Amino acid sequence: MSTASRELPSAVSAIDGERLTAPSGPGRPRRGRFARAGGFTPYALLTPALVVLAVITGWPLLQLVIMSFQEFGRAQIFGAPPEFVGLGNYVAVLSDPAFWQVLGRSLAFAAVCVVATMFLGVLVALLMKKLGTALRTLVSIGLLLAWAMPPLSATIVWGWIFDTQYGVLNYILVNGFGLAQFDGHSWLIDPLSFFFVATIIIVWGAVPFVAFTVYAGLTQVPDEVLEAAQLDGAGGLQRFRLVIMPFIRSILVIVTILQVIWDLRVFTQIYALQSIGGLAEQTNTLGVYIYRVSLGSGDFGTGGAISVIVVLLLVALSIFYVRRNIKEEAL
After folding, report:
1. What CA–CA distance (Å, rounded) separates 128 from 117?
2. Which of 312, 316, 328, 322 is nearest to 253 (CA)?
3. Burial class of residue 282 (count of CB atoms within 10 Å of its CB; 0-12, 13-18, 19+)
4. Which residues pair with 83 in a beta bridge?
5. Is the per-residue pLDDT at 221 higher than 90?
6. Most exposed of 7, 9, 131, 228 (fewest Cβ within 10 Å)?
């Protein structure tokens, strides 16, 4: 007997004498392969945002890509026609030892900032989960004040703290701890201590975002699950690793990707610290390096090539973290 010839038994209806039968196979409605709940409504709602992004972000990005294949300098700014040089700018950038030094320095600096920011941000979020309403509100206000301060203002304030002659830190180390070697000590003249100060400034301003985001995720973890794990003998670290982490893993991945993007292209803090007393050649990061190559030397074509390389690097890192998170969730 064929499949089409088989019929389901009829069912009794609520009306006396009436029986219900299922429609035959060929007559049943089928959903299209690309049909989704809501049809094209989600795409229609996203269209205005996509158009705005295409105009505001897509067009300048296209101009940047085109410029990266051109010899574009000060003469072109005043009307001279640009000359296409193909991959010449990219070859010049990738064969320049200074670029690789800046790239390695930026990656190491971003890695330290991201790890420190995520570690402290998660700790603050866990602390906020344990605090009462009054103390949690007080901590939230302090975090908001740090988050709301503009990067340039924060850098100037921290620059006063680490000032060579009148800095609070040097005063405390000399008069409070008797460390005479810090009398007139310059924290920005040495690249290592320069990036130590820059890390403090960047992490101080980034921790509030991580803390608030992770705290929002922690509020979605069921208390019953945590209580059951505690009754089973799981310690605090085990509860965080085995119970809390699966609930907030996607949040941590997104926040980490954002921190990597922001810390790799950091500009204001580094440039301001260099203006206060740092050595630019030894402390340039990618954001400052692009600025100095483009506006400092007037070589906008080479600066565009560096920018495109940085964009591709950030896209590759983002795809790596997203794919890794998807694979972990699929297991």
Report:
1. 16
2. 322
3. middle
4. 71
5. no
6. 9
Using DSSP bridges, classify how beta strands 83-84 and 70-71 pair: parallel, antiparallel or unpaired: antiparallel
Return the amino acid letter for 93.
Answer: V
Write down the pTM of the prediction: 0.79
> HEC string of the chain?
CCCCCCCCCCEECCCCCCEECCCCCCCCCCCCCCCCCCCCHHHHHHHHHHHHHHHHHHHHHHHHHHHHCEECCHHHHCCCCCEECCCHHHHHHHCCHHHHHHHHHHHHHHHHHHHHHHHHHHHHHHHHHHCCHHHHHHHHHHHHHHHHCCHHHHHHHHHHHCCCCCCHHHHHHHHHCCCHHHCCCCCCCCHHHHHHHHHHHHHHHHHHHHHHHHHHHHCCCCHHHHHHHHHCCCCHHHHHHHHHHHHHHHHHHHHHHHHHHHHHCCCHHHHHHHHHCCCHHHHCCHHHHHHHHHHHCCCHHHHHHHHHHHHHHHHHHHHHHHHHHHHHHHC
Residue 303 burial (C-beta neighbours within 10 Å; 0-12, 13-18, 19+): buried
pLDDT at residue 304 tops 50: yes
Model confidence pLDDT, tens digit, residues 157-178:
998 999 888 889 999 999 888 8
**Tokens 């007997």 correspond to what residue?**
1
The model's pLDDT over 114-148, given as tens digits with 9 standing for 90+, comes to 999 999 999 999 999 888 889 999 999 999 999 99
Helix 97-130 × helix 133-148 angle, to 10°: 160
